[in-house]
Amino acid sequence: MRRSRLVALPVAALLLLGAAPALAGCSFQTVVKDVTGGNVDLGGNKVPSGFPSSVPLYKGAVVFGASVGSGRGTVWNVTVNVKDAAAYQDIAKQLTDAGFSGQFGAQGPDGGGTGTFANDQYGVLVVVTDAGSNGWVANYSVSRAGVESPSPTATP
Predict the structure, then answer these.
(1) Can you point out the beta strands (E) in 49-131?
(2) Cα dihedral 73, 49, 118, 125 sign
(3) Coil vs helix vs strand at 47
(4) Contact 37/8 with Cβ under 8 angstroms?
(5) Phi, psi of 144 (to 5 degrees)
(6) How many whole angstroms separate alpha carbon 142 and alpha carbon 117?
(7) What's the pLDDT score for residue 37?
(8) Calpha distance 74→76 (Å, rounded)
């Protein structure tokens, strides 16, 4: 159990940083499934199964979707195309209209933004950024509220 918790943390970090789209090949998915005991869904260009319906997503093409973990420890990650940098404001409004409170928000000098939102069930980290030739994207990382993240420990 301890091994899978420690391995899940780096896998979740990859998902949160948006590196998963580049690593979504079959061999990577097989390795991750073997290490986590099958608790990963690298869903490709669709919203991963079990994604909370109470978390509104911007209406754009899904670039990548994934989830890792199981039960209350599941973390979902979805990246969607957005029209431009102003989409961050639209997303923040969608989330607050859905009952989420904004915990932190910052906009970049060239637009886009980063914000955290929460309600009594979920925490959401949203990053809207220019993805170069792929246009603007919004990345959503969603976890259940009140779930402690495992902390890695150093071994001598």
Answers:
(1) 62-68, 75-82, 101-108, 111-118, 122-130
(2) positive
(3) coil
(4) no
(5) -75, 145
(6) 10
(7) 53
(8) 7
Residue type, 124: V
pLDDT at position 14 is 43
Taking the C-alpha atoms of residue 54 and residue 121, their distance in angstroms, rounded to an integer, is 9
HSE-up of residue 56 (Cα within 13 Å, Cβ side): 14
Length of the chain: 156
Closest CA to 24 of 59, 55, 68: 68
pLDDT of residue 95: 97
Residues of the chain with pLDDT under 70: 1-43, 147-156
Q: Which two tokens stand for residue 134?
A: 């792929």
Q: What is the pLDDT of residue 26?
A: 47
How are the residues of the chain apportioned to helix, strand and coil, as percentages rounded to the nearest 5?
A: 30, 35, 35
